[in-house]
Amino acid sequence: MRAAIVRVRYSRIRPVLMGGVCGVAALLGCAIWTAAPAGADQDPDQPAAVRARPLRGGAAPSSSRPITTAYPERLSLTFSNVNVRDALVRIAQYSGADVLLAPGATGNISINLRQRTAEEAIRMVAASAGLYVTQAKGAYVIGTAEEVQRAISEFGLTEVVPLQYAKPDDAVKYLGQTAPTVKVEPTANGVAMTGLLEDLRRAREAIRGYDIPPVEAPDPVITSLVAIEKASPEKAEAVLKQAFPGAAISRQDQVLVASGPSSVVGAFERAAKAIDVAPPTLPDQPKVAVYRTQYINAERAEKALKEVFPSVKIAASPEPNVPPTAVFLPLTSGAFSSAGAGGTGSGGTGGGMGGG
User: How crowded is residue 250: how many other Cβ atoms within 10 Å of its Cβ?
Assistant: First the structure.
């Protein structure tokens, strides 16, 4: 079916209050316009009083019969340096749409519309003036972002969306750009959104794409040189290689070279400094020495040496009170034999003498 093309001509427009948005219109000081189109045999450029004349034959129009008007499905309009309010009112007049204009809906526009629906025409005209559009109770609410938010707060719903990663204040700023027709307020751990059902759906999708884990920057690869001054370089290299397998560690004399992620290399540097200490020295083992005095008294020597060497344990041994060790010379068996023979002879002699 061919769409009707409406030729734009200025005509008088009368305001009509809508039952669903009267309160908002009074609150915002807005104008709500509906169409009062001219009849087929009437001139839209003439006032309504001039157009309302008796029908042919002198019969007056019947007031009890309802008047129905067929609005075109698509519009073709041209505006050249026209106030945006006049353009929107003209679209409402020819399309039969209800339009709520906030006080901030100002500015001049120039635009050509070809075969556009009423909604497309309203949104394109509002966008050309930097205004926002939303629908409430079947009417188009047009104005600045703040005015649209105040208007839809009378009709909209409130939804609280918890946040996991994003900060509430940052989310409010983000939704102010991506969903300006939704009123957003921060909460303890989320945001409270107020708006129409369709606007809330778009705002919910936007905040889901914003509330994501932060992307961590990749860890850069760096190289570090650490000089080992006190510990053994060979042992330090072996220990650090085992402790940090994620870094390439090599040694040049007393210098250790490590290449890898900055976080791993930083831990390598701290560990290398921690183990670069001198090896512990073992304490001296105590020794015992005995000195035999020849000319000085042992007790006097003990007292003098303790004064000179207080850290040395000195003790005088007791004086010997026993005679020197005897030298044992055992007799041979031959001595016993000769001694016995002589004795026998003497005894024999003696016996002989006695007998005489």
Answer: 11
Q: For residues 103 and 39, what is the distance between their CA atoms, to the nearest angstrom?
A: 31
Q: How does pLDDT run across 249-266, given as a tens digit for each residue?
A: 999 988 999 999 998 999
Distances 38 to 41, 42, 222, 229, 288 between C-alpha atoms, Å: 8, 6, 80, 101, 133
Integer distance in angstroms from the first to the last C-alpha of the chain? Answer: 195
| Cβ burial 294-332 (10 Å sphere, 16+ → b, else e) | eeeeeeeeeeeeeeeeeeeeeeeeeeeeeeeeeeeeeee
Fold assignment, 221-275? Ribosomal Protein S8; Chain: A, domain 1 (3.30.1370)
Residue with tokens 């850290």: 311
Strands ordered across the beta sheet of 221-227: 221-227, 255-261, 248-252
What is the overall mean pLDDT for the chain? 75
Question: What whole-number distance in Å separates Cα of residue 293 and Cα of residue 307?
Answer: 18
Fold of 156-210: Ribosomal Protein S8; Chain: A, domain 1 (3.30.1370)
Distance from C-alpha of 197 to C-alpha of 188, rounded to nearest angstrom:
24
Residue that the structure tokens 């959104």 belong to: 193
Could you tell me the residue ranges of all domains in the chain? 22-50+71-144, 156-210, 221-275
| pLDDT tens string 116-150 | 999 999 999 999 999 998 887 778 889 998 888 88
**Radius of gyration (Cα) for the chain, nearest Å?**
59
Encoded tokens for 28:
């915002």
Strands (E), 63-198: 75-83, 99-101, 108-116, 132-136, 139-143, 157-162, 183-186, 190-195
Q: Residue 171: enclosing H or E segment and its boundaries?
A: helix 168-178
Residue 15 gets which letter from DSSP?
Answer: B
The one-letter amino acid code at 164 reads: Q
Q: What is the pTM of this model?
A: 0.40
Residue 26 CB partners (closer than 8 Å, separation 6+):
none
